[in-house]
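User: quick one, fold this
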Amino acid sequence: MIFKTVLNSRIFLWTLLAIPSIPMILALANGAVSEDGRPATEFLLHPTGEFAARFMIISMIISPFRLMFPKNGFWFWMVRRRRYFGVGAFAYAAFHTVLYLIDMGSLQAVLGEFLAFGIWTGWLAFFIFVPMAVTSNDASVRRLGRFWKPLQRFGYLAAMATLLHWMFVHNEFGPALVHFVPLALLETYRISRVFGSGSTAAPA
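Assistant:
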């Protein structure tokens, strides 16, 4: 009973999502420097971006897995907490963005590389994340009504922009594809099931 109460607690889930950020915050607070002499504001850029992408992917694969395993209790539990992972993704994306701005040092430096393909795709993903995160609450669901789901579907565009940002910001395709190819396969499965069965949505 206690285990179930803890598992269903919002505090437990927020703590779980926050755990990866703890060593990052400590590194910043202690002025940590990497072995090659980079400050924390620089060497934490990659892990903050990775966790933003990972939590976004987790939030997006829940529906396909729920469709694949409709009687599985774990995926039912995940469906009910999907928004937490989306907000977690935004929090790490915001962390990533703040570190980037600090590392660049000035607005002129930021604008100077804004049009680079690997940069503006990252900004596009972040700007899409903002309204999605702000409306990820019950009050917004009620207020927006039938417009809420179409707004949240912009997450697919954010996912594509995130993939391109990850691949082209350092011209490293492998790690990004390892994360996003499973998502693409699962979404393909979900779409084929939805349209194949004539259903309008995955179980929620």
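User: anything notable?
Assistant: The CA atoms of residues 12 and 169 lie 34 Å apart.
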